Amino acid sequence: MFKFLKGVVAGSGAGIKDLPYNIGEPYSSAWGSWTHYRGTSKDDGSLVSIFSLSGSNAQDGHLAAGRNGVKRLRTVRHPNILSFLHSTETETFDGSITKVTIYIVTEPVMPLSEKIKELGLEGTQRDEYYAWGLHQIAKAVSFLNNDCKLVHGNVCLFSVVVTQTLDWKLHAFDVLSEFDGNSEASTGPMLQYEWLIGSQYKPMELSKSDWALIRKSPPWAIDSWGLGCLIYELFSGMRLAKTEDLRNTASISKSLLPDYQRLLSSTPARRLNASKLIDNSEYFQNKLVETIQFMEILNLKDSVEKDTFFRKLPNLAEQLPRQIVLKKLLPLLASALEFGSAAAPALTALLKMGSWLSTEEFNVKVLPTIVKLFASNDRAIRVGLLQHIEQFGESLSTQVVDEQVYPHVATGFSDTSAFLRELTLKSMLLLAPKLSQRTISGSLLKYLSKLQVDEEPAIRTNTTILLGNIAGYLNDGTRKRVLINAFTVRALRDTFSPARGAGIMALCATSSYYDTTEIATRILPNVVVLTIDPDGEVRSKAFQAIDQFLQIVKQDHEKINTGDASGTSSIGIPSIPGNASLLGWAMSSLTLKGKASEQAPLASANTSTPLASATSSTSLVVDTPDTVVLHANLGSDLTDQAAPSSPTSTDGWGELDNGINEDHDSDKDGWDDVEPLEEQKPPPALATIQAAQKRPVSQPKPQVTGVRTKNVVKATKVEDDDLWGSIAAPAPQTSSKPLNLKQAAMHDDDDPWAAIAAPPPTTKAKPLSAGRGRGTKAAVPKLGAQRINRTSSTGL
Questions:
Q1: Same domain assignment for residues 205 and 92
Q2: pLDDT band at 51 (very low <50, low <70, confident <90, very high)
Q3: CA triplet 152, 157, 162: central angle to 5 degrees?
Q4: Which of 84, 108, 132 is the last residue before a domain boundary?
Q5: Which residues, including other chains, have CB under 8 Å from residue 4's CB and lie 6 or more apart?
Q6: 48: which of 39, 273, 291, 479 fits an S-S bond (Cβ 3.0–4.6 Å)?
């Protein structure tokens, strides 16, 4: 490090072996006698450019000018001037001949002439890029002439290089000198090394060595002439051979021609100042220049200007040269988002530009910025990230998701906005497979247990669906504690019919994780009740699930009869395609906005993905008629039928505080087929839930009348008195007597799942079934319709 600093300060070293850079292949062109090489750093392998100049002895005039260039380049700093990194000078001996070589190390650049050929731009895009490049060089020349009172002396095509971000930068400072306009009596050359300048690039006064006239001229006179030479070489596509060729203006852009002619005025005092060229030229008024200029002064813009600009940027980017967008605009946009100067709509433009990159480039240029944005406190940016997570989710590594992304995403589970809770839930479909078991068990399942009793029915439904989709990523112990209780005790008792249907589909999709004892004693009793559900879709799914689980039990029976003892545990069969597609459809339907006719076709495209981990390799086929029927029946679920037991009652996931946030944003939550239900009568539905939870213990069994006036059934439900505390309880005994409530209470104390269970509710009275057990006598049956307890898993 000290050697490097010494080289920067002193400009020389002991030799080439001390140069901390590797010299690569040379470029085909360079300014003057210099040779331009590609290079890399020996420390970190970063790219650099290395310029070398050799002379036969230390007194060579080229070497003296080269040392002047090194000194000037080291001391003059500007965004549009080549950045200096290091320099050294070496001596080599070949017999009696001494060879001296000067090395300058700079940021990685490429000669402008070669970059233009590489880009191959044509038409409007070429003019826009030339305008941006000339704008940058004009700013560099203006800085030298007007601010520093320096004269470059040889502005031309070969004194311009291009960076990796396609910025143009001025270099070749060998002739650079102070403008000595006050010494009019001096007859010596103001430009000490003017003999290095090609005769075709010299204005008339310099060709005649009229130093008196040069000193009387403005400091920009010589370099303005050089800008004119640069413009000619750009548009003609060839190197300037003689001064007379500058009169050929056929290739010059019409909007630039007046300024071009003023730059090449025969009278030095009338030549156009570079600063005036920047401010007044019509040629620089184009989309590319205006877009980049806006991005460079973004901090000076107000929020309205930023919002308007970034909303137009995605469409604007398609009209600009693709290479310039990716190499110049994209880094500016990523930096603006990372440091907070860009508005949330900029994220859409960033991801759109990122989609034009290869996977490797995306991971290097875009992904680090996205990971940092997850820590943003701006809700709009968080929403944007979650809405577009499918575009970059697969690129996130397991470690990054678990340590950097999930801790920030998880805050959305408890957000007051229902829309943000919904987006957070949906994002877990991509993020959960990359989480560690510790994070899943210790954090994610806690949040999901609360979301299953969320006030939004769409969120409750999709929580069940998510559990079914990520079941394959849970360990065996967690699956035993969670799945059956979450699907049967909560989902099958939800007041929202799609939530009950989702519970059935989730059970079918995860059927391979249950043994026959669990199926016979805990799953089938709960599913059978739904065969008389008021909703036709739920009944159809219930019958389908019963057939599937009975097939599993029959297979176990046949294996036992044939003496195959291995069939008594984990004998599940893959879920059938119909159920798999329905589980996938429920996720898609409830996450898309639009009309029913727009949702049905989209369902078929999204059904196979969510259940890939939980289903077999059988191809999935969406039952489109079923999809349409479910959508059509949603409107009457809460108004035309009596609601089953409340999903927020005691149900086996852990006692939760079911407080309702009144300021949530559910008006546009992205679930079109659910919104009408919420808009019709949400207060009565919530009132029913709260009233059921606050009934006193001594209250007799409630009598429910309504559309359910048939098939009177009375059952005792063990899980009614447990909130996720009974999840770890072993499977009920298959003796002649069903499990009683005292046994359930005993197992609740040793529940390992209780460690992540939600806190107990603040209500003192037990809801619904509090007066049905614990040693009390059964209530005397009453005449008339009785309520069907559809939560029973052991007492039927």
A1: no
A2: very high
A3: 95
A4: 108
A5: 20, 86
A6: 39
